[in-house]
Amino acid sequence: MKINPILKNESKVGVRTFRFNLMVMLYVGILSIVAMWAYFIINSDKYGMGIDLSKFTILSFALACGQAVLLMFIVPVLTATSITGERERQTLDILLSTNLSPMKIVLGKLMSTVTKVALLIISTMPIYAINFLVGGTSFKELIILTLFFISTTIYVGSIGIFMSTVFKSSKSSTVASILTVLFIVIGTIIIGFVVISRDYYDALSNNTISTFTINLPFWLYINPTIEFIYILIKQNGILYFAPDLINYMNLNKIFVISLINQGIVTLLLILLSAWRLNPVRKSIIKVRR
Amino acid sequence: MLTIINLEKFYGKYKAVNGLDMHLKKGDIFGFIGPNGAGKSTTMKIIAGLLPADGGEIYVDGIDALKDNKKLKEKIGYMPDFFGSYENLKVIEYMEFYASIYGIVGKESKDLIMDLLELVNLEEKKHAYVDGLSRGMKQRLCLARSLVHNPELLILDEPASGMDPRSRFEMKGILKNLKDMDKTVIISSHILSEMNEICTSVGIIEEGNLIYSGGINNLLSRMSSNNPLKIIVRDKVKESKVILSELPYITNIKENSKELTVFFNGGEIEISNTIKALVLKDIPIVSFTQVSENLEDVFIKITEKESK
């Protein structure tokens, strides 16, 4: 099988750097602190019979959330510097002068980020091992969660790469990517919550609550938090963090639509990035001289 | 090998390349000369498929370069004016990476890389980190990289810029080897004395216009045709001056001890008539030369306008 040369090169060279190794150390370190904190909560609640093992779901929940928050910042940073970094190192023209197509460059960059994220996730397995010991998470659940993180990495990574083709400097594209991701992950939830709450209280005041169902605004489906909540509910059954509104949702349907929507957005962003990267791309607007 | 017809490129309203025409045969080493901002790099980037053209046509070995970007890139090797590389990459890994882009892997890649490193005298540096190489070595490595897929046409943008004399000498040797390999090369440089030795033809570009394209000797003789004559006589300086001033095409004479600088209008006939006039009057001529110009002088003359 022919491996994308960019992926091959970055997988080899990118992980050699001090920066990457420091990132792995900090990532594992922060998740270890999260795990210790969750363990402390579980331990502080023990009675004469010992630790309530069923509460170890808190640990898997905390680890999943910690991982999600870290990746929310790491993936945009890794991808937003992918093309701007080439431009700043002055290697982009060389790459574009070879027979490597812009699409292959974009996919290579995206896949190398996925590889790095996979490495980060794998490096946290010893922390998850605490859960295996007491049955807080099954291996299957861990695989599902990892697949979610990988698919979200591709989605968020495509945003980062697109920004990297729009902005000239790494700083600008990183800031733009993080702000975009924060808006998608937190901003849309806040706006969506306001919109849905309004409908909910309208239904309450109009006595139509018995027939009330939530129809999410279409733009909320671009938020990967929806799938994340779905997976957490399925795995841990923890609902105390979710508002009552969640009972009025068809979560299965929302999960599928979100996946499809984010897949489409990812595809569009990859195509747009490749188009923007093409030095001899056809201009959409023809300028008359 | 390369045909450019009426190439045009705009940056906003500024016309960076204005109806440029060029034709290169296989094995030609073409020197691109012009002041900064004249349109050299823009033209080279358009040929390399790194910038879109706003008008005209480019054919590389029969391929329509402006339409078939993919096929074009199989034919060309491009070396930019600045060397960029990745952190923590060894020379051999750098070459392997670019070889793998063209699908050259395994033993074939190793053999090719060693041949190319030998060509650019870097075989002993194969395990060194690229970041640690000198500027000259980096430039040579970049040249080796551009040859990895055995391109027909090489586009070298300022390959000797920032190099010390030793590195420039080595680069010159490598370019001569490329000439022997029958590669067609377009090279832009400000080290014109070296272009003089390497190039088979040159093009002078100014404000996007190719104001000259052809052989170097032809250009030099054309630019030197009205250059003054330098005559050194053993004695009879005053008499020589009188004889020369009587010739109708002589416009000015400057005297410096036994050396006379004679300005004139005309060509070879007038030069031979001048010698004849002096010899017939028994003037003891020690030396008789026309001030010749090298490529550097021509470049200065052409770019004078810009500096003003």
Automatic annotation (TrEMBL), chain A:
One of its GO terms (molecular function) is ABC-type transporter activity. It comes from the Bacteria. The chain crosses the membrane at residues 20-41, 61-85, 106-130, 142-163, 175-196, 216-233, 254-275. GO terms for cellular component: plasma membrane. Keywords: Membrane, Transmembrane, Transmembrane helix. This is ABC transporter. It comes from Clostridium sulfidigenes. The lineage of its organism: Bacteria, Bacillati, Bacillota, Clostridia, Eubacteriales.
